[in-house]
Amino acid sequence: MPYETIEVAPLSPRIGAEISGVNLSEPLGNQTFAEIHKALMTHQVIFFRDQVMDWEQHKTFGRRFGELHVHPTAPSPEGHPEILTIRGDAKSKRVAGQTWHTDVSCDEEPPMGSILHLHEVPETGGDTMFASMYAAYDALSDTMKAFLDGLKAWHESEHVHGKRYGHKGGMRDGEEMLFPKALHPIVRTHPDTGRKCLYVNCNFTTRIEGLARAESDAVLGFLYRHIETPEFHCRFRWRNNSVAFWDNRCAQHRALWDYYPQTRHGYRVTVQGDRPA
Ligand code: SIN
Hints:
Strand order of the largest sheet: 1-2-3-13-5-15-4
Strand content: 25-35%
Largest sheet: 7 strands, mixed
Bound molecules: succinic acid
CATH class: Alpha Beta
Number of helices: 6
CATH architecture: 4-Layer Sandwich
Radius of gyration: 18 Å
Distance between the termini: 27 Å
Helix content: 10-25%
Order of helices and strands: EEHEHEEEHHEHEEEEHEEEE
């Protein structure tokens, strides 16, 4: 299907493309929706410039791609549980997403995608890096692929979200609910493209099921270093009102916090995914 209603400019051969010709605050026609979906499936993360959207328009755009996900522990603006605030400023002690990760992979059915709209960005800095997990998988030797295929790893959240948000309630499933954790395949097959990709990340993934702790640490350590290979990456320079939409199933991201004490502020809507297979 050729692109007829949008223009798509790749940022790198492996991952990332900038999309123009669409206003995300308006309802998407079927053709434009299909083209945006195709661009996301092809490039794993897509970027839009100069988008003015309120929370309702942001959520409406997200719902075009599936049900919206509610974060297990992060606070949300009153009456908008599907909105996640992303903010770094002079009072911040840390910011969200500073290590390589896919969003909320501790859920049994982790998010399919995330749509981040930044309203205010620093003069310089605050870029987000993205890594293709197709490229990371493809670059492994056949022997390593065969070893990893069929293995599963635990993705846990208490060490990530407990520290950041505390245990003060406001959790998705109630105050008494444990922080979610889930066992996922290390290599997953993308449900739309049918391509294999790596699905471990240093934020949430804690250990490989069936291996001794030292073996698991060594394999995960190797995979985390492998994922850092620059040839698998693209880097996005934000402007006010830019939007990034990434596919959590096949891409990881890392937010750079090099702009302290300046402010970087916006909102994320996250689209529900299915159980990795
Ligand atoms: C996130 O992990 O959702 C934050 C990404 C960013 O702030 O660039």
